Amino acid sequence: MLSTSLVGLASLATLSSAACTRELLVDAANKWVFLQSSGDHSDFDNLSYNLTYLENNKTASIISGLPAWPQVIAFNRSVYDTTLCKTFTEIIVTDPAHPYVIATQMYLGAEGNVEKIDSLVTDKGDWAFNATGYYYWNSLEKWDPIPPEKRMSRDALKAVADTYPDRCNNKSVVVPFNTPCARLEGGAYTGRGNLSANTCDIGGLPEHVLMSNRRYVIDEEMGTVDIFLGFQGLDRTRPNEGTPDSHFFRIEEGKIKYIHTVSACFVDGCGMNGTGIPPLRVA
Ligand SMILES: *[C@@H]1O[C@H](CO)[C@@H](O)[C@H](O)[C@H]1NC(C)=O
Ligand SMILES: *[C@@H]1O[C@H](CO)[C@@H](O)[C@H](O)[C@H]1NC(C)=O
Ligand SMILES: *[C@@H]1O[C@H](CO)[C@@H](O)[C@H](O)[C@H]1NC(C)=O
Ligand SMILES: *[C@@H]1O[C@H](CO)[C@@H](O)[C@H](O)[C@H]1NC(C)=O
Ligand SMILES: *[C@@H]1O[C@H](CO)[C@@H](O)[C@H](O)[C@H]1NC(C)=O
Ligand SMILES: *[C@@H]1O[C@H](CO)[C@@H](O)[C@H](O)[C@H]1NC(C)=O
Ligand SMILES: *[C@@H]1O[C@H](CO)[C@@H](O)[C@H](O)[C@H]1NC(C)=O
Ligand SMILES: *[C@@H]1O[C@H](CO)[C@@H](O)[C@H](O)[C@H]1NC(C)=O
Q1: How far from 90 is each of 99, 129, 132, CA to CA, in Å?
Q2: Signal peptide location in the record (predicted)?
């Protein structure tokens, strides 16, 4: 929690309620990315006095957590939910000294200031972590805006995205996978073969795993749904608890084309006791 005495947080509680525009969200997300690159929050003038900053689902501070440490950002991507007034951002840091993959949801309040930053900061020891792989496979994907005539409603996007976490606890749920389709998980990619013919229908999805506490960022223009959720038992040291996780879906014409996941293990290696990347499949 930030104290109100912090210089530079010139948030104006007296501003009248502003409609949540895409421009406002773009501005906030850009400031977030800049903050992570500079390590200095003083240019982020749209932070609320009572900002809540969560790092891997734990209360932390932007003045001592990762945002305080400038990073060379190899790639960033943001999407915007004007209905919930939220943003979602992917940041990839490939610096060999300390690579990271960061997934962040931000919540803006009625005055247009960021009130909550919910960030998953993953690095070595997290599920299938490989920032170089995340960067490489991501660079082969196409995430252009959806042409206006092909855009889906937010309800339709949410329904498609929810089939995937629902399926993990109910194998009767049918997930509409596109062909091609690929899942980028920590840095490992399911689409290693023919990139124009891949499918995500490759089995290996769990059958009795609850994906709980879902928090959404839905962008109709980008055809995306990001879901922050608790992935039950992904970290084997806490089998009955949700591991902090982001599932980011790109949906085209009703079908899932890409899935990017980021999972912050409670302990390095997620309790798998392996020396390398934890296996991709969850039994
Ligand atoms: C907040 O964001 C808006 C829109 O980008 C901007 O006009 C305003 O000056 C910013 N700063 C404060 C302190 O509200
Ligand atoms: C922060 O302050 C705003 C405006 O007073 C309020 O609406 C919001 O609920 C507060 N958020 C938290 C997390 O306390
Ligand atoms: C974030 O990505 C945008 C678009 O690719 C790029 O122009 C910008 O420089 C990036 N920001 C940082 C801090 O790397
Ligand atoms: C990470 O991904 C890159 C790109 O696919 C690959 O060359 C490298 O071997 C991977 N590293 C590990 C440790 O798997
Ligand atoms: C499992 O999914 C099927 C198909 O969507 C649905 O009919 C059924 O009610 C679901 N079962 C539970 C327990 O939710
Ligand atoms: C990849 O798959 C597509 C679609 O099935 C096919 O047209 C193409 O020839 C394949 N390419 C290779 C290199 O196998
Ligand atoms: C995060 O924290 C909240 C509140 O403390 C809790 O309800 C939730 O289950 C936690 N885990 C995840 C992954 O959201
Ligand atoms: C990992 O090792 C611990 C301690 O030896 C053991 O209790 C646990 O069952 C092991 N977990 C797995 C997934 O092998």
Answers
A1: 14, 14, 14
A2: 1-18
What is the Cα–Cα distance from 216 to 20, expressed in whole angstroms?
A: 16
Tell me yes or no: is domain 22-123 CATH 3.10.450.50: yes
Pocket test for ligand 3, best of 31, 43, 73 (most atoms within 8 A of CB): 73
Give the up-direction half-sphere exposure of residue 254: CA atoms within 13 A in the CB hemisphere: 2
Domains 22-123 and 146-271 are alike in CATH topology: yes
Which has the closest alpha carbon to 58: 268, 231, 264, 221?
264
Q: What is the CATH number of domain 146-271?
A: 3.10.450.50
In angstroms, what is the C-alpha Rg of the chain?
A: 18
* Predicted pLDDT of residue 5: 37
Q: Strand, coil or helix: what is 164?
A: helix
CA of 216 to the centre of ligand 5 (A): 22
Give the tens place of pLDDT for each residue, 159-201. 999 999 999 999 999 999 999 999 999 888 887 777 888 888 8
In tens, the pLDDT along 70-97 reads 999 999 999 999 999 999 999 999 999 9
pLDDT score of 193: 73
Q: Is the CB of 57 under 6 A from ligand 7?
A: yes
Ligand 7 close to Cβ of residue 179 (< 6 A): no
